């Protein structure tokens, strides 16, 4: 999934890695004189490390001119690279294979690390060292296992000491796609992990090569070349370091200079580094989670990730996945469009569907939203007191959801709270809500299954109920509904805005649009307008202010106030879930603003456009 800017870098990286690997493979099998196992070692490491693997090959191993491989590879630092290449090729292959399997099985990260270590050590010891090097080492297979155990143990510890924290912190960091083998980021993290592991293993391999505990780079020539090189068919590249020479057909026996206390100390230090590298990340991230627990979630920038943060919380705060978008709304699409019901035996029947859409809040800013009937806000449901209504709801979201009828008196099983009054409606599922409308006024509907996520992403809509007696309604010349919302859009992705670290909003909308894309309402001097403020927003209290003189508050939370209880104001604090009906009179001509009186909420990503942004619209009085 292409979701973040660095995904494009990863594509370029893997193209370079493929090209580098192809070159190394071609060059190795077209004349570079070394054992087959080392050829494959460089090929695998270049596959994992890309251009850096190619660089190591060219600087340390590629024969510069015919007949010079022995001399060229003789320096100790190059021999150390050869030893580390052999170690990393086998160990990293086992680690990566194990990471793919454990992620696919849904095992937690701490088990993943243990399995990766066992697989990497086993692959390196039993296959790359003891099996592939059997002819060179001489002796039986199990003798080679015994001889290779300690150097492989030290190398593996050192490499995993670097790989483990790298993988843990990157996989369990902000971009949880790194835990999914089907994502590019997973393989990018593997590459970084191998490079870090190579760096931590290299100094120990240099020491072991110097002490003749491990082999480094070797030269193997054809019979024709052997006659030109002292009749040796196989010759190690460590002659200048008194490394035992390989006569034609002989085994590669190494008489190490390291003492037992030295090896034990080295094993102890690398073992401590290994344990530290596997445990310390657990102080910062939750190693008890698996790839399935986090579902390739991408966290908002700045979110605080701790070792006790559960996977459900991560998914709740995660960005909408762009590939889940099933509909792209036209640039000029508007929300809050009246949904016309059909009549069945006197029942008003509404069809409501939830899905993931792409919605423009500004001409150049689109959000990935959860929406009812492909619009934000959802369609306006208009009813009359006494109506019997049926809402057929279908869920096309990638997660379960429900619908709550905010402020209405309905049968309990129709109220909507997930797992309390009804089972959540699963993806692809349906549910029918049916009730008789017994109230009138300004209400709304919204998700009641993970509403902190779903409502914040757009699952809400106005529900306006006319009184059975039309004379009971406080009327005005114009009627306009204002639904408030906060959004978080960063680095191409849309996150549910929340009042917590890293999730604070940077865009604000009225009826799904941010100023200057909000409506301009044309009026004439002397006209009145009923503004219905609806707190469809999730997080903040918005002090909604109208320029040009005070208004009269005539209804609160759907209940019309008695005339004696109505009052004059020019600002109302609209909190989440609240509704205010106010009537404003156009006293003088001009452009009069309706806006939130928190300045940050009247900017678009902290930028003012044409005098403002966000929660702002214009009453244009002539």
TL;DR?
The protein has 622 residues and is α+β, with helices and mostly antiparallel strands. Helix content is 33%, strand content 23%.
Mind explaining what this structure looks like?
The chain has 622 residues and is an alpha+beta fold. The chain contains 14 helices and 25 strands. Strands 13, 14, 15, 17, 19, 20, 21 and 23 form an eight-stranded mixed sheet that branches. Strands 3, 4, 5, 6, 8 and 10 form a six-stranded mixed sheet that branches.
What structural keywords apply?
single chain, 622 residues, 25 strands, alpha+beta, 6-stranded mixed beta sheet
* Beta content: 15-25%
Query: Total number of β-strand segments?
Result: 25
Mean pLDDT comes to 92
| Portion in helices | 25-40%
- State the separation between the terminal residues, measured CA to CA: 51 Å
Helix/strand-derived category reads alpha+beta
Task: Note the overall shape.
Answer: elongated
Low-confidence parts = 224-254
Tell me the major beta sheet. 8 strands, mixed
Total number of helices: 14
C-alpha Rg, in Å? 34 Å
What does the secondary structure layout of this molecule look like, with pairings?
Layout: H1 6-28, H2 36-49, H3 51-60, H4 69-72, H5 76-105, H6 109-129, H7 134-137, H8 141-171, H9 184-210, E1 218-220, H10 223-227, E2 234-236, H11 260-279, H12 291-294, H13 311-317, E3 327-328, E4 342-344, E5 347-362, E6 365-372, E7 378-384, E8 388-395, E9 403-406, E10 430-436, E11 441-447, H14 451-454, E12 460-466, E13 478-490, E14 493-495, E15 507-510, E16 520-523, E17 528-534, E18 542-546, E19 551-556, E20 559-560, E21 567-569, E22 571-574, E23 579-585, E24 590-596, E25 616-621
Parallel strand pairs: 3-5, 5-8, 7-12, 13-17, 16-25
Antiparallel strand pairs: 1-2, 4-5, 5-6, 8-10, 9-11, 11-12, 13-14, 13-15, 17-23, 18-22, 18-24, 19-20, 19-21, 19-23, 24-25
Helix pairs in contact: 1-2, 1-3, 2-3, 2-5, 5-6, 5-8, 5-9, 6-8, 8-9, 8-11
């Amino acid at each position: 999934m292409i979701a973040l800017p660095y995904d494009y870098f990863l594509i370029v990286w893997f193209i370079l890695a493929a090209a580098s690997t192809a070159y190394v493979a071609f060059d190795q099998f077209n004349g570079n004189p070394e054992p087959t196992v080392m050829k494959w070692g460089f090929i695998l490491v270049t596959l994992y490390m890309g251009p850096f693997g190619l660089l190591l090959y060219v600087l340390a191993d590629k024969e510069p001119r015919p007949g010079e491989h022995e001399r060229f590879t003789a320096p100790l630092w190059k021999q150390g690279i050869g030893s580390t290449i052999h170690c990393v090729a086998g160990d990293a292959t086992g680690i990566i294979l194990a990471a793919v399997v454990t992620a696919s099985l849904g095992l937690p990260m701490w088990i993943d690390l243990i399995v990766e270590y066992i697989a990497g050590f086993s692959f390196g010891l039993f296959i790359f060292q003891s099996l592939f090097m059997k002819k060179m080492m001489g002796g039986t297979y199990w003798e080679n296992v015994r001889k290779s155990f300690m150097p492989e143990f030290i190398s593996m510890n050192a490499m995993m000491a670097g790989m483990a924290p790298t993988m843990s912190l990157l996989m369990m960091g902000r971009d949880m796609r790194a835990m999914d083998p089907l994502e590019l980021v997973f393989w990018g993290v593997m590459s970084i992990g191998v490079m870090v592991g190579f760096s931590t293993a290299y100094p120990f391999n240099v020491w072991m090569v110097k002490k003749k505990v491990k082999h480094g780079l070797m030269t193997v020539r054809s019979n024709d070349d052997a006659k030109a090189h002292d009749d040796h068919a196989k010759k190690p590249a460590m002659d200048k370091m008194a490394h035992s020479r390989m006569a034609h057909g002989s085994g590669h026996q190494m008489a190490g200079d390291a003492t037992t206390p030295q090896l034990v100390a080295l094993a102890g230090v690398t073992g401590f580094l290994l344990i530290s590298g596997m445990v310390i990340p657990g102080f910062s991230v939750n190693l008890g989670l698996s790839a399935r627990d986090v579902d390739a979630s991408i966290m908002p920038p700045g979110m605080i990730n701790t070792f006790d943060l559960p996977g459900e919380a991560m998914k709740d705060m995660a960005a909408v996945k762009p590939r889940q978008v099933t509909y792209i709304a036209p640039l000029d699409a508007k929300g809050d469009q009246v949904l016309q019901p059909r009549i069945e035996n006197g029942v008003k029947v509404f069809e409501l569907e939830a899905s993931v859409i792409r919605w423009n809040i500004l001409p150049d800013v689109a959000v990935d939203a959860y929406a009812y009937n492909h619009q934000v806000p959802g369609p306006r449901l208009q009813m009359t007191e006494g109506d019997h209504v049926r809402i057929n709801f279908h869920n096309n979201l990638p997660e379960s959801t429900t619908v709550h009828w905010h402020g209405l008196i309905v049968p309990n099983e129709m109220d909507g709270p997930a797992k309390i009054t009804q089972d959540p409606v699963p993806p692809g599922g349906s549910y029918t809500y049916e009730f008789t409308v017994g109230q009138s006024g300004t209400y709304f509907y919204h998700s009641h299954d993970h509403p902190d996520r779903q409502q914040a992403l757009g699952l809400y809509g106005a529900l306006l109920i006319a009184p059975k007696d039309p004379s009971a309604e406080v009327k005005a010349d114009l009627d306009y509904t204002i639904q408030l919302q906060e959004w978080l859009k960063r680095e191409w992705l849309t996150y549910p805005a929340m009042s917590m670290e890293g999730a604070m909003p940077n865009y604000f909308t009225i009826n799904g649009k941010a100023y200057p894309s909000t409506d301009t309402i044309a009026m004439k001097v002397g006209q009145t307008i009923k503004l219905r403020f609806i707190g469809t927003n999730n997080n903040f209290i918005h002090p909604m202010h109208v320029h040009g003189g005070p208004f009269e508050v005539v209804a609160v939370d759907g209940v019309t106030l008695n005339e004696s209880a109505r009052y004059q104001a020019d600002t109302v604090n609209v909190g989440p879930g609240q509704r205010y009906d106010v009537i404003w009179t156009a006293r003088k001509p001009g452009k009069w603003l309706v806006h939130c009186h928190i300045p940050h909420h009247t900017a678009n990503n902290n930028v003012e456009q044409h005098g403002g942004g966000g929660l702002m619209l214009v009453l244009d009085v002539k």
